[in-house]
Amino acid sequence: MFSFFKRKKSDPDQKPDNDVDIQPAEEIAGETGVPQEPAPEALAEAFGQALDGDAAVDTGAGEDVPDEAVDTAIAVAAGEPVAESALPEADAPVIEEPQPVVAPAVNAAPQQETAGHTQEKPGGSWLARLRKGLARTGQSIGGLFVGVKVDESLFEELETALLMADAGVEATESLLAALRARVKKDRLEDASQVREALRDILAQHLAPLEKPFPLDAAKPLIVMIAGVNGAGKTTSIGKLAHAFQAQGASVLLAAGDTFRAAAREQLIEWGARNDVTVIAQEGADPAAVAFDAVNAGRARGAHVVMVDTAGRLPTQLHLMEELKKIRRVIGKAQGDAPHEVLLVIDGNTGQNVLSQIRAFDAAIQLTGLVVTKLDGTAKGGTLAAVAAGSQGVRPVPVYWIGVGEGMHDLQPFVAREFAQALIGD
Ligand SMILES: Nc1nc2c(ncn2[C@@H]2O[C@H](COP(=O)(O)OP(=O)(O)OP(=O)(O)O)[C@@H](O)[C@H]2O)c(=O)[nH]1
Questions:
Q1: Annotated region Disordered: where (predicted)?
Q2: What domain range is 285 assigned to?
Q3: Which of 32, 65, 86 is the last residue of a domain?
Q4: In the chain, which stretches have pLDDT less than 50?
Q5: Which CATH number does the domain housing residue 311 bear?
């Protein structure tokens, strides 16, 4: 039913090169045998049965599968009894057999760099790029401390700068209250001391968001990734695949954006660059792709399975329902999965991030955030708003921050470094 890819295959009819891994999922599942789970082939059949006759809703994200049909299909594939009324008559199949998706040519030589903090590359270290990116915010905040007296007008200007940086009312008030108290207690008279104090206070404020990613919490660790269109999901998955592999973990990717061919190809390309298997199927139900990927990950003994999903706005309720379904179906493939549910947010978004987090959290119970594009934003204060629980948002941990488009431009979030980049030295 599904195809597996590692490298470019120039002619679908030709026998693949030795380093090309294109196998039917059922063969892979048979390698180690995961007997309790329905074989993908059985699932395909079951989906065919279960879907036929059901009015599939066009979600705008590809051929959607009604939820009951997924349940029925899984039950059928697993050999469980299913109410007859749940099984539509066998007629024309709804899911077409996938055409193999061919990964584009990638000449990328294996990259030597790791996801370490100190690594240098053209354009400077990641911290330098973060600082540069946050410069507009940093200048507006850090610049206030130059050649001024510590008085009420400094606090007023700080308040404006923090609000302009999208720190939000709650965080701004809380940070300034703490700063005033520190200035009083430590009798700070020099503006540069006040700036240092603000940096400390901001680092403390952001610290609850800092959490190391628990890569070894399960095997395979099933990670579902969601976010609005263009937030940087696929790029982040590619970077993460690289970082996880650098830590010795084997990775499998699922192209859950079954609607947009370009999105699938983008993931396949990232997979090829990292020599990682990608499961993709054009026009399939994304929940079925996710289900199959989890089973394949189990069968192959992968350390991590990352499931990409199509971008969607929280206001597109039918697409949010689809996301819930993907989460549920992953849980049917493996009871305790997904272990991590990540929301990728664009660091340029500002306060709108709060409603994104709230909506995605309500739908799929987030476990972490990835904040991208921090290499070019004036909205660096948004994470302070998240940490403050502004507008009723749950302070979801930030696992990583994106500071560029390259393979290594994803770094663990470290509150102190972030505060330093934001406020300046
Ligand atoms: N500067 C910069 N660009 C980034 C970063 N992360 C992603 N991008 C760019 O953002 C654009 C969108 O990234 P994608 O990974 O395609 O985003 P997506 O969320 O998968 O997009 P959809 O599938 O359309 O929803 C691409 O041009 C990326 O190169 C980052 O940290 N910094």
A1: 1-64
A2: 221-414
A3: 86
A4: 1-66, 69-123
A5: 3.40.50.300
